[in-house]
Design brief:
The protein is mainly alpha-helical. It has one domain. About 60% of the residues lie in helices and about 5% in strands. It has seven helices and two strands; from the N terminus they run αααβαααβα. The longest helix has 24 residues. The termini are far apart. The mean pLDDT is about 90.
Length: about 180
Protein backbone atom coordinates (compact mmCIF):
# COMPACT_ATOMS: atom_id res chain seq x y z
CA UNK A 1 0.00 0.00 0.00
CA UNK A 2 1.42 3.36 -0.95
CA UNK A 3 0.57 6.76 0.37
CA UNK A 4 -0.60 9.05 -2.35
CA UNK A 5 -0.27 12.78 -1.94
CA UNK A 6 -3.23 14.74 -3.22
CA UNK A 7 -2.25 18.13 -4.62
CA UNK A 8 -4.08 21.02 -2.97
CA UNK A 9 -7.01 22.34 -4.95
CA UNK A 10 -6.24 25.53 -6.84
CA UNK A 11 -8.57 28.45 -6.20
CA UNK A 12 -8.59 31.72 -8.17
CA UNK A 13 -6.88 34.35 -6.04
CA UNK A 14 -8.24 37.84 -5.57
CA UNK A 15 -6.28 41.00 -6.25
CA UNK A 16 -5.47 43.12 -3.23
CA UNK A 17 -7.43 46.06 -4.65
CA UNK A 18 -10.68 44.09 -4.93
CA UNK A 19 -10.25 42.77 -1.40
CA UNK A 20 -9.65 46.30 -0.14
CA UNK A 21 -12.70 47.69 -1.91
CA UNK A 22 -14.92 44.89 -0.60
CA UNK A 23 -13.68 45.43 2.94
CA UNK A 24 -14.10 49.18 2.42
CA UNK A 25 -17.78 48.75 1.54
CA UNK A 26 -18.33 46.64 4.65
CA UNK A 27 -16.40 49.14 6.79
CA UNK A 28 -18.38 52.09 5.41
CA UNK A 29 -21.71 50.39 6.15
CA UNK A 30 -20.69 49.61 9.72
CA UNK A 31 -19.04 52.99 10.27
CA UNK A 32 -22.07 54.94 9.06
CA UNK A 33 -24.39 52.96 11.34
CA UNK A 34 -22.12 53.48 14.35
CA UNK A 35 -21.49 57.15 13.53
CA UNK A 36 -25.20 57.92 13.55
CA UNK A 37 -25.20 57.19 17.27
CA UNK A 38 -22.18 59.37 17.97
CA UNK A 39 -22.17 62.92 19.18
CA UNK A 40 -19.88 65.88 18.68
CA UNK A 41 -18.04 65.32 21.95
CA UNK A 42 -14.30 64.76 22.03
CA UNK A 43 -12.85 61.35 22.71
CA UNK A 44 -14.00 57.79 22.30
CA UNK A 45 -17.64 56.96 22.90
CA UNK A 46 -18.49 53.57 24.40
CA UNK A 47 -21.92 53.28 22.77
CA UNK A 48 -20.46 53.99 19.36
CA UNK A 49 -17.77 51.32 19.88
CA UNK A 50 -20.36 48.81 21.04
CA UNK A 51 -22.60 49.46 18.04
CA UNK A 52 -19.58 49.20 15.72
CA UNK A 53 -18.58 45.83 17.22
CA UNK A 54 -22.10 44.40 17.01
CA UNK A 55 -22.63 45.62 13.45
CA UNK A 56 -19.20 44.28 12.43
CA UNK A 57 -19.98 40.83 13.82
CA UNK A 58 -23.37 40.80 12.11
CA UNK A 59 -22.06 41.96 8.73
CA UNK A 60 -18.73 40.13 8.66
CA UNK A 61 -19.46 36.93 10.64
CA UNK A 62 -23.16 36.09 10.68
CA UNK A 63 -23.94 37.13 7.09
CA UNK A 64 -20.97 35.24 5.51
CA UNK A 65 -21.67 32.19 7.64
CA UNK A 66 -25.21 32.07 6.25
CA UNK A 67 -24.37 33.36 2.75
CA UNK A 68 -21.67 31.05 1.33
CA UNK A 69 -18.79 33.11 2.73
CA UNK A 70 -19.90 36.45 1.31
CA UNK A 71 -20.62 39.68 3.14
CA UNK A 72 -22.21 42.68 1.44
CA UNK A 73 -18.86 44.00 0.17
CA UNK A 74 -17.62 40.58 -0.89
CA UNK A 75 -20.87 39.96 -2.77
CA UNK A 76 -20.44 43.30 -4.57
CA UNK A 77 -16.98 42.27 -5.80
CA UNK A 78 -17.53 38.53 -6.44
CA UNK A 79 -15.27 37.19 -3.70
CA UNK A 80 -15.76 34.89 -0.72
CA UNK A 81 -13.95 33.48 2.30
CA UNK A 82 -13.10 29.78 2.55
CA UNK A 83 -11.15 27.57 4.91
CA UNK A 84 -7.66 27.14 3.50
CA UNK A 85 -7.48 23.39 4.05
CA UNK A 86 -10.98 22.10 3.29
CA UNK A 87 -12.13 24.69 0.76
CA UNK A 88 -15.48 25.15 2.49
CA UNK A 89 -17.19 28.06 4.21
CA UNK A 90 -15.41 28.56 7.55
CA UNK A 91 -17.17 27.60 10.75
CA UNK A 92 -18.40 30.27 13.12
CA UNK A 93 -15.32 30.05 15.36
CA UNK A 94 -12.90 30.61 12.45
CA UNK A 95 -14.91 33.56 11.22
CA UNK A 96 -14.99 35.04 14.73
CA UNK A 97 -11.19 34.70 15.04
CA UNK A 98 -10.63 36.23 11.61
CA UNK A 99 -13.03 39.10 12.02
CA UNK A 100 -12.06 39.73 15.63
CA UNK A 101 -8.57 40.70 14.51
CA UNK A 102 -9.73 42.63 11.46
CA UNK A 103 -12.62 44.20 13.38
CA UNK A 104 -10.29 45.55 16.07
CA UNK A 105 -8.10 47.15 13.40
CA UNK A 106 -11.21 48.55 11.66
CA UNK A 107 -12.46 49.92 14.97
CA UNK A 108 -9.17 51.77 15.46
CA UNK A 109 -9.52 53.22 11.95
CA UNK A 110 -13.06 54.28 12.81
CA UNK A 111 -11.83 56.05 15.95
CA UNK A 112 -9.06 57.70 13.93
CA UNK A 113 -11.48 58.97 11.30
CA UNK A 114 -13.77 60.40 13.96
CA UNK A 115 -10.95 62.27 15.72
CA UNK A 116 -8.43 63.08 13.00
CA UNK A 117 -9.48 66.72 12.56
CA UNK A 118 -9.16 67.52 16.25
CA UNK A 119 -6.12 65.28 16.80
CA UNK A 120 -3.86 64.67 13.76
CA UNK A 121 -1.85 62.01 15.62
CA UNK A 122 -4.92 59.78 15.35
CA UNK A 123 -3.47 58.77 11.98
CA UNK A 124 -1.25 56.37 13.96
CA UNK A 125 -4.33 54.23 14.60
CA UNK A 126 -4.11 53.11 10.96
CA UNK A 127 -0.86 51.21 11.68
CA UNK A 128 -2.40 47.95 13.00
CA UNK A 129 -4.56 47.64 9.87
CA UNK A 130 -1.59 48.38 7.63
CA UNK A 131 0.52 45.72 9.36
CA UNK A 132 -2.26 43.13 9.26
CA UNK A 133 -3.17 43.64 5.62
CA UNK A 134 0.40 44.36 4.52
CA UNK A 135 1.24 40.69 4.99
CA UNK A 136 -0.94 39.89 1.96
CA UNK A 137 1.48 41.84 -0.26
CA UNK A 138 4.39 39.62 0.72
CA UNK A 139 2.46 36.34 0.36
CA UNK A 140 2.47 35.85 -3.41
CA UNK A 141 1.17 32.29 -3.28
CA UNK A 142 -1.99 32.48 -1.15
CA UNK A 143 -2.26 36.27 -0.58
CA UNK A 144 -3.18 35.75 3.07
CA UNK A 145 -3.20 38.64 5.50
CA UNK A 146 -2.29 38.00 9.14
CA UNK A 147 -5.93 37.53 10.13
CA UNK A 148 -6.30 34.92 7.35
CA UNK A 149 -3.23 33.03 8.50
CA UNK A 150 -4.39 32.99 12.12
CA UNK A 151 -7.90 31.75 11.25
CA UNK A 152 -6.63 29.45 8.45
CA UNK A 153 -8.85 31.08 5.83
CA UNK A 154 -8.34 32.45 2.34
CA UNK A 155 -10.20 34.85 0.08
CA UNK A 156 -11.01 33.61 -3.42
CA UNK A 157 -12.89 34.77 -6.49
CA UNK A 158 -16.47 33.64 -6.77
CA UNK A 159 -18.87 33.23 -9.64
CA UNK A 160 -21.69 34.49 -7.46
CA UNK A 161 -21.98 38.24 -6.93
CA UNK A 162 -22.87 41.64 -8.29
CA UNK A 163 -19.58 42.29 -10.18
CA UNK A 164 -19.47 45.93 -9.10
CA UNK A 165 -15.86 46.37 -10.22
CA UNK A 166 -16.66 45.16 -13.75
CA UNK A 167 -19.78 47.32 -13.96
CA UNK A 168 -17.84 50.41 -12.87
CA UNK A 169 -15.11 49.70 -15.45
CA UNK A 170 -17.75 49.39 -18.20
CA UNK A 171 -19.41 52.62 -17.08
CA UNK A 172 -16.08 54.49 -17.10
CA UNK A 173 -15.18 53.10 -20.54
CA UNK A 174 -18.60 54.05 -21.90
CA UNK A 175 -18.30 57.54 -20.43
CA UNK A 176 -14.83 57.99 -21.97
CA UNK A 177 -16.11 56.89 -25.40
CA UNK A 178 -19.07 59.29 -25.19
CA UNK A 179 -16.83 62.24 -24.23
CA UNK A 180 -14.69 61.89 -27.35
Amino acid sequence: MSIEQVPPKHYPKVEIGRRGMASGIDFLCVWIVSSLLGSSQLGVQVVQILVFAIAWVLLRVVVPYNNQGQSLGRYAFDIKVLEAERGKVPDLQSLLKREGILGLAALLVSIALSNIIRNPTAILLFIPLAIDCGAAFSDTQLRQALHDRYAKTMVISSRRGYSLDIKVKRFVDKTRRNMR
